[in-house]
Specification:
globular
């Protein structure tokens, strides 16, 4: 289920892993902006963690493709603010922001 009607760019990162760090960040920015401006309809709030987790996955993907944690910090802060604005508790936000650098 897509949170924002007609938004074909909101893709499941698991099924679309051949994107560059820049593409992952573009998708993050586009969808974060739409969520910030449009919000989530009340009837779809049960899906909020799924949608926020997709944004988090795009940050993870960008990290794995060469972005640094320092580069991602402003976006992570925006994600945290949005999550709190949508009513997430501190523990939920911590889960969203737990991003691990890929080793190997």
């Amino acid at each position: 289920m897509t949170m924002i009607p007609g938004n074909g760019n909101f893709k499941n990162i698991v099924k679309d892993t051949n994107i560059s760090a820049d593409e992952a960040l573009q998708r993050f920015d586009l969808n974060l902006d739409k969520l910030c401006s449009c919000g989530i309809p009340p009837e779809e709030m049960e899906y909020k963690m799924k949608e926020l987790s997709t944004l988090s996955a795009w940050l993870q993907e960008a990290l794995e493709k060469g972005q640094t944690m320092q580069d991602l910090q402003p976006r992570a802060s925006k994600l945290a603010k949005l999550a709190f604005d949508l009513g997430c508790c501190r523990e939920e936000v911590e889960v969203l922001l737990t991003i691990y650098p890929k080793h190997g």
